[in-house]
Amino acid sequence: MLGLLLRLAFFAVALVGLVLLFFYAAVVAVIFIPVVLILLFLLRKNGVIKWTTVDLRTRPAGSPGRPPVIDHDPNDVTVPRKD
Fold first, then answer.
1. Which residues contact 67 (CB under 8 A, 6 or more apart)?
2. Taking a C-beta distance cutoff of 8 angstroms, is the pair 79, 67 a contact?
3. What is the pLDDT of residues 12-46, one digit of tens each?
4. 40 — phi, psi (to 5°)?
5. What dihedral do alpha carbons 71, 72, 75, 77 form, nearest 10°?
6. Closest CA to 70 of 82, 55, 60, 48
7. 66: Cβ contacts below 8 Å, ≥ 6 apart
8. How far apart are the C-alpha atoms of 80 and 83, rounded to whole Å?
9. Using 50, 70 and 90 to split pLDDT, how confident is the model at 2?
10. How far apart are CA 9 and CA 38, in angstroms?
11. Rounded-to-integer distance, Cα 77 and Cα 69, Å
């Protein structure tokens, strides 16, 4: 009987500990997440990456030949290049 009561007490203490840990993590998140977001906003870098689009149907004025080949892998070229 005493063993059953000790196991019940152990599980009750463990459950209370988990609930307290969950609330502690929630409070820490509520405090630190806005601080981190504000720091990221203040310390961000402007203009590191500028995304653009290319219309392959048109060529810039004065450019002879084919439109440019846009390829991220130089070993996978489908259009022969003149080197």
1. 56, 57, 59
2. no
3. 999 999 999 999 999 999 999 999 999 888 887 76
4. -65, -35
5. -10
6. 55
7. 79
8. 9
9. confident
10. 44
11. 8
